[in-house]
UniProtKB/TrEMBL annotation:
Protein name: Uncharacterized protein
Domain of life: Bacteria
Lineage: Bacteria, Bacillati, Cyanobacteriota, Cyanophyceae, Coleofasciculales
UniProt keyword terms in alphabetical order: Membrane, Transmembrane, Transmembrane helix
Residue intervals passing through the bilayer: 21-40, 46-66, 78-98
Length: 99
C-alpha cells in the first residue's frame, strides 16, 4: 500500500511541476500501447492513431524545448525526430490503401 501511495504522490508532483511534459509522456505511452495492440491484432486504425499521437508528442516536445530550454534539449530533439520519422513511415506505409 505504501508503494502505491508513494507512486501516486510522484505522479501528482510531476503533473503539478511540469504538466506539458506529463502530457507528452502520456501521449508517447499511449502511442506505444497502440503499437503493441496493433501488432497483436493487425488493424490499421490502431496504427494511424499511434502515429498521430507520436507526431503530436514530437511537436509538443519541440515547442517546449524552444520555449523553455533544458539541459536535455538534444535528447528531446532526437526523440522528437525519431517520433516524426516513425509517424511519416506509418503514414507512407498506409498511403496506398487510401485513394
Amino acid at each position: 500500500m505504501r508503494f502505491w501511495r508513494n507512486w501516486w504522490q510522484i505522479v501528482i508532483f510531476s503533473i503539478q511541476h511540469d504538466p506539458p511534459q506529463f502530457v507528452e509522456y502520456l501521449m508517447v505511452s499511449f502511442a506505444i500501447a497502440l503499437l503493441v495492440k496493433q501488432s497483436l491484432t493487425p488493424e490499421w486504425p490502431y496504427l494511424v492513431l499511434s502515429a498521430s499521437l507520436a507526431a503530436g508528442a514530437a511537436v509538443s516536445m519541440w515547442v517546449r524545448v524552444l520555449i523553455i530550454p533544458s539541459r536535455h534539449s538534444k535528447i528531446i530533439k532526437l526523440l522528437g525526430v525519431a517520433l516524426i520519422i516513425y509517424s511519416f513511415g506509418v503514414f507512407a506505409e498506409l498511403a496506398p490503401y487510401f485513394p
